[in-house]
Every structure is written in structure tokens, then in C-alpha cells.
Amino acid sequence: MTIAAFMALLLAISCxxxxxxxxxxxxxxxxxxxxxxxxxxxxxxxxxxxxxxxxQSPNKYFVFGWNPFLNIYNWSNGKGDGWDRFVKKxxxxxxxxxxxxxxxxxxxxxxxxxxKGFYGSCVQDTVIYRKRRAKVRYEVFxxxxxxxxEITYDIADSLMLSLAMADISGxxxxxxxxxxxxxxxxxxxxxxxxYRNNGYYGFSKNYVFFxxxxxxxxxxxxxxxxxxxxxxxxxxxxxxxxxxxRIGKVRIKYPEDMKVRESLLKRLNRITPGALYDEQDINTTxxxxxxxxxxxxxxxxxxxTEGDRVDCDISLTQSKIQGMKLNMEASTNSSGLFGVxxxxxxxxxxxxxxGEWFTLGFMGNFQFKFNDPIRSTExxxxxxxxxxxxLFLPDSLFGSTVPRSDLNLSYNxxxxxxxxxxxxxxxxxxxxxxxxxxxxxxxxxQLNIIRLFNLDPEFYADLSNNPYLQSAYQNHxxxxxxxxxxxxxxxxxxxxxxxxxxxxxxDLAGNFLSLFNPLMPTDAAGNRMIWNTPYSQFxxxxxxxxxxxVFGDKGNHSxxxxxxxxxxxxxxxxxxxxxxKQFYAGGASSLRGWQSRxxxxxxxxxxxxxxxxxxxxxxxxxxxxxxxxxxxxxxAGALFVDAGNVWNLRSSYEGDPGxxxxxxxxxxxxxxxxxxxxxxxxFVLLRLDMGIRLHDPSLMNQGTDEDPLYRRVGWISPSRWxxxxxxxxxxxxxxxx
Length: 737
Hints:
- By secondary structure, the chain is of the alpha+beta class.
- It has 14 helices and 27 strands.
- It has a 16-stranded antiparallel β-barrel with strand order 10-11-12-13-14-15-16-17-18-21-22-23-24-25-26-27.
- The two termini are 36 Å apart.
């Protein structure tokens, strides 16, 4: 039955991709661009660069020229009924070839080549028709280029000439470069920026003129750059002498009911009355007022006044200062174990009227089975305050950004059948960004105090077989530092185009304390102690990389790929990584065929010492692939594959299946597939995912002669996909990555 269904699916997908096209028309299957030129010219041109000037693009393909959603669209019956609307909503319509688009595409390419400095270019086209598909080939012959032999400047104003010459090393047009409109345009923008940053309010690139002579010197160009008192397209009679301006009055306007200290507004402002007009100061001030996130809008209006002055009005409106956020994750699996993780937070972005952010959060994690007294309860409370400055460093070091100093305090209580644990944490650090792509945190002080109570004697005795694991479950004191670097190509809340981001986080603990080892007492195991508690010493790093491709009409389709890796290593005063610093897998944003902490380490079976799963490791590797598509209204669907696991670096006994080994690495990879539904309400996205296990490393070598083969190799056959311990269902808020 399974094979028959699979063959039926293949047959359906292989249906025609031109069925819905009108008779006598063709589907545009492919555009090919070939550049016929010498090596030097090819270095300055790329096929992908020219392809964007072709007016008609074919359907995008996933692999080997195949797009299953193109086939799905052709399942439509043309009746306009529910089925017809459904498949057209999921699928992608074929691109109907338009022959008239070829000529305009050729003109676009030639125009772009001229802009790049290739003069007298031509493009030839060839169309191949086969089986109602059209393939278009564009052969590009780039024209002649002219190297710049000499550059002269015609700037009558001596001060403006000196400003241009002072930054001549930054010029984007140099002798020996090839003449091109693109480089001249960039140079005009650079020069206009120099002048606006040096008092010339209102100066634009249209005052910059270029004259190139390609006839006087054979195969070369002589270039003259001039600054004139009239703009391009106007007449010399309209000329007005360029003047330097100074800042006049600076007024900051905001609603009367807005409670904010004047000292904050003055510190954010970089526009000084009487100073020479500088466009950088205007832009920096705008960025700083926007970056503090207190104001709904920031407008800076400039008005030219008498005496070559520019008055500046900074108008502010108030944003929502405080609010609440609710988040919820829930999951269940085929064994009947439920998990619920609610969180509630309050924020105030102006708690002391100086742009200080205050946050107060409550979280919980509850795992249980109905009609079973065994359960796990975790409760936490956290508070933090963030000041809009980098304490102990001057604001001027951070340019247009507003750095922040962060102080946080939290308490976590966890009650499990095996133990009760309390964690008190505090940290102090800084956060800032450079531009809109790089974000940094530096936390010089991270302190955690962990205390265990009500430790089940049988549980701890069972751990004695693995002292490495046992050492992770003890009271300890953790003092260290940490930091992170986050990079993104799109920092908007809901990107509409393809984007990429990565995050690296590093933690170090115990190194500073180790300097005082000679002054500390030791316990029976030789560990140095503070307040009768051993301190932890370790290094930990975690890296996540995510790429999301958005495509289709209105961005209704996307493919997201994530890779995550982490490693922690204990040394010095610690035999093992502290439990709360170890890695785990499984859950609503991880391997979705398992519940949280139910995977690994390696090929280890579920640790029977834990009534509720609590599997962790020193290393984590994970990859996730998800296809997202709009179904109808605000409902979207998803298909996904998750793979990965956690492993230990060391063990206390030989042959531990949880240790990372080269010869068993691929056998120890957990793998699941799944499908999901999303309700996108614009302000929040609700997510329901079901993950189904394909390969479970814990089943490796666990079978007997009576067991099916899948239990000895870890693979789970389709007939068991919905059996016990083979799937999990997760509810979450927001995308998993």
C-alpha cells in the first residue's frame, strides 16, 4: 500500500506543467545569458548581474529543473470550484512566454552595459521551442571600454577645491580606471556628501559635472570634473554662489504629557547652535533619537534663515511606553507525556524618565501525564534594567548608535522526582550595534549560584556508575563572563525578502577565580570552594546560522535552513560541565519528533534514572530545513526535516554510547520529518507542528532476534510512524527559527 501511494504521488507530481496555458502559447522554461568577451571584460560582468535586466523570468526551480508547486498548479480543473482555488493557492502558475519581452530585455542589457562603461554593445537572441516550452538564449557582446588617462578639476572656489583635494585618496574615479557612468555617479554622490558635511547646506550631486573626451587620445579618455553654481539641466543664468552655513536655533519639540528628562534629550542630540552645518550630525542625531525606542516618530526639519544660518526643529511623538507580552509553548508525544511552557513579561521603556528599560518576567515549565502523580515543575522570575549609555565610557565613541548598560537578576526553581534545584543568577553587561547589521553584547560579570535539595538517594546512587554524569549534579558556584555577536541582512520584525542571520555566543567561567586557588579551601575531591561550594570552570560556545529564501507571488513561499553547533568543555576545578550549561535537543524549536531534552546523548537509550526525560550533552549539532507556504486567508502550512543530536566529550566508563566518536557519528544522528500549520495574525504567529521520527539512535543495537530490523538499525518504518514513542506534537508562538 505504501509503495502504491508513493508511486501515485510521483505520477501526480510528474503531470504536465503547461496544462493550464492557452493553446498556441508556451511556458518560459529558461533564460540563458552568455557573455562573449575577453577575460578582462568578463571580470567586470557577471551573468547574474545581466539576468536581472531580462523583463520576463521563468519559474524558479528547487533542484534539477524541478518545481513541484508548478505541477500542483496544473492539477486545477478550470471549473473555479473549491479544489481549483485550493491547488492554485498552493501551487505556482507557469510563466507564459511573451516574445515581445525579448527586444525590451536586449535594450535593458545594452543600457546597463553602457552604464558600466561598455560602449557600442550588442545582444543577439535565439529562441528554442520544444514541447510547449520556450528557452531563450541571450548572447552578449560587450562594447569598447576607455581607460581614463588623465583627470583634471575645474573648481573656481578655492575652499571647495581644497576640500575635494583633501580627500582625493577616497576618490571613486582614478587615472587608469575605465570610464563608466556608474563610477561617475558614485563619485558625484561622494563629493556632494563631502560638501554637505562641511557647511554647504543644500548642495547636491547635480552641481557636479563630468566631461570626457575620447577622441583626443586614442583608445583613452580625458576626464574633467567641475563644480558649478547651477545644476544639471538648468542654465548658467540660474547660478547661485555656494555658501557655507552654520546651525541657528535648535528646538526639540515633544508632547506636553510626555514625561522625559531634558538631560536625555540633550545627550541624544548632536546638533550644536553656532556650529558649521554638518549633515553627519543631522543623521547621527536622527539615529540616536530613533535608537532609544522611546519615540513613535522622529522628524528633523531644517529651515534656511538670514545670515547663512539653518534652524533645526526636532519633532518627537511618543510611542507605547509600557506593555505586556505572553508566550506559550506546548507539546505532547505518543507516550502521553505533556509539556506546557508559558511565559509572561512586563516592559516599561521609560521607568525613570530617562529612557531606562525595565523588564519583569515570569516563566513556567510543566511536564506531566494525566492520572499519574509524577511530574516536573519549573518556575522562574527575572527582572532587568537597561540604561541608554555605556557606563564608564564616553558616548562619543559610539557614533550614531545608543549603547546600553544592562543589569539583570533572576531566580529559578525546579522540582523533579529526582531532585529540587534553586538557581540565583545576576549579570551586568553592555549591548550596542554598528549600523543595522551587527549587534554585540559583552557581559563582564555573570554569576550563578546553584543549590540542589531533596536529592533522591537512589537516583544519586544510580549515577555513581557514571561519575562524569554524577559530577554535573552537585552544588556549584559559577562566576565568569560572556559575549555574543549577531549579524543579520534584514533587521525588520517580519522580513519580506530573502535574508540571512547568524549568532555566536561565548561563555567563560572560573578563570578569574582560579587565580585565588591557593587561598581557597578544598573538599574531599580536591575541588577549590567558595562559601563551602565548588566553583565551576569551563568554556562554552554556540553558533547558529540561518538562511531564508522568500519567493513566489507576494512572498507566499519560503525555504528556511538552519545550522546550529555548540561545544562546552570543563577543566581546572570542574570534572564536568554544569548541568544547566549543557546542551539539549528536542522540542518545539529543535528536533520536533521528540519532546524537549528527550534526545541523546549519542546512541544512549533513555536514562531510566530520570522519570521525565532529561538528556543532555557537551556537544550539540543540529540542522533544520523547513518549507513554508500560504494556504488561504491567514493560514499557512509547513513541511520540515530536522536532524541532529547531543554528545558527550568524555565519560567515566568504556564504550559509553553517548560519547562522540568518528566511527559511529552518522549512526547517532536523530532524524525526523513533519508538517505544520501556522495562523499568521500579523501581530503574532501561532504554530502547530507534528514531528515524526525517521531515525532514532536510541534504538541502535537494542533489538532481539524477534524484533523487526528497524529496531536494530534505528530506522522507523512508515507502518510505525504513529506508534508509541515515534512522534510528538508541538504548539508554539512564532517561527521555530
